[in-house]
Amino acid sequence: MNYAYVYAGLHIQSALPIPEWAAFECADSDGADVYIRLENGSRDWEMPAPDAPIVSTDEYCFSVPEVGAYRVTHGREIRIAPDHGTCWREVRLFLLGSAWGALCYQRELLALHVSAVRVDNGAIAFCAHPQKGKSTLAAYLTEAGHPLVSDDLTRIEIPAQGLPLIYPAARHLKLWWDALDALGWQSPSMVRDHYRFEKFYLPLDGNGQIQPLPLHAIYVLEWGELGITQRTGQAALHGLVSAATYRGTLLEPMGKMGWYYRQCLELIRRIPIWQFQRPRDLALMDQAVRYLQNHWMKNGDLYHIKSNYSQNPPPSGRGHPLHQSPRRDVGPR
After folding, report:
1. Are 24 and 5 a contacting pair, CB within 8 Å?
2. For a FRET experiment, which of 47, 146, 155, 183 has its CA 20 to 30 Å from that of 210?
3. Where are the domains of the chain?
4. Do residues 132 and 221 touch, judged by C-beta distance below 8 A?
5. Could you tell me the sign of the dihedral formed by the alpha carbons of 150, 154, 155, 160, in that order?
6. What pTM, to 2 d.p., does this model score?
7. What is the pLDDT of residue 303?
């Protein structure tokens, strides 16, 4: 049995169900852009060592101990050889991360590691180095009334003219326990991260946004005294590339380094890049959210934002029902 999805602007036919993409499921049809295949028996490709992936212009092959091996070719196919008895959730983790990111590079689709929320009829994105609170900020903005657009690897399309477009990703957040506790978010649908004991995957209610949205700005996150400053030129390019690049070590062996930098240069030409500093203290997050909303209002003409967020501060109550019923670990049927 095959499963069909329209995700990031691509029609995908998959041999395994992908519950993270449930909102993007579609009727099966011929002529998919991408095929995801399972190989439970013999295979005609080399199994790489975990510390020695195979990377070339049109091939990326890697293996993960106790999970399986993956081969991504020509931007068209992802083949998975799962280890016996492996957890399907872990198989999907690397499918939707490393394998999907490599496929986007092969197809020359700009995929950035960002979180994004909806603001009026568009989206605002955030990027950050690890441990800089990107997902936590997205969670607080979600609670303040801004629907989640993405919280991970996200496709950005740069059309011939006009604003870039951001494609919605799977509706889940990856949050550390201290952020969940501060928000009062507890749900049986939380799934503990396989590698980080205090981090959890949390699916959100509803189907959310499916069609791409205009992207109005990107904020590079830092810790510090509350403030927002615009980055331009080389500083904007460096901030974006250093904080938002996913699996940057793949670009050179794939021959995509020049293409990638040209895409990023065009992105910073189309939209502003801001640096947003805020305190690390979670008790001050509501203040940081209001500061950010006021910044959107101040630049409303640039962003085409009309809502007066300064009069609608984040709710003080926590723990409203955001989450779905418990997620099952689903494998092929």
Report:
1. yes
2. 183
3. 3-106, 111-311
4. yes
5. positive
6. 0.88
7. 64
Cβ–Cβ under 8 Å, residues 102 and 248? no
Could you tell me which residues come within 8 angstroms of residue 148 by beta carbon, excluding any fewer than 6 positions away? 115, 116, 117, 118, 138, 142, 171, 173, 204, 208
Backbone φ, ψ for residue 226 (5° rounding): -55, 125
pLDDT digits (tens, 9 = 90+) for 246-289: 999 999 999 999 999 999 999 999 999 999 999 999 999 999 99
Domain 111-311: which CATH number of 3.20.14, 3.90.320, 3.40.390, 3.40.50: 3.40.50
With the C-alpha atoms ordered 166, 153, 169, 139, is the resulting torsion angle positive or negative? negative
φ, ψ of residue 267 to 5 degrees: the values are: -65, -45
d(CA 3, CA 139): 30
Provide the token pair at 281: 């203290």
Token pair listed for 41? 């028996």
Distances (CA, A) of 237 to 214, 230, 266, 317, 326: 20, 12, 10, 39, 41
The answer to whether the beta carbons of residues 47 and 69 sit under 8 Å apart is yes
Quick: pLDDT tens for 170-220: 887 888 778 877 888 776 566 666 555 567 767 776 556 689 999 999 999
Show the tokens assigned to 87: 């957890």
Element at 125 (helix H, strand E): strand 122-127
Sign of the C-alpha dihedral computed for residues 123, 129, 135 and 136 taken in this order: negative
Q: Which residue do the tokens 């490393």 mark?
A: 98
- Beta pairing, strands 10-14 & 34-38: parallel
Torsion of CA 124, 128, 132, 138, to 10 degrees: 20
- Which secondary structure element, helix H or strand E, spans residue 105, and what is its range? helix 100-106
CA distance 220 to 280: 15
Query: What's 212-280 look like in SS3?
Result: CEEEEEEEEEEECCCEEEEECHHHHHHHHHHHHECCHHHCCCCCCHHHHHHHHHHHHHHCCEEEEEECC
Burial grade of 131 (CB within 10 A; 0-12, 13-18, 19 or more): exposed
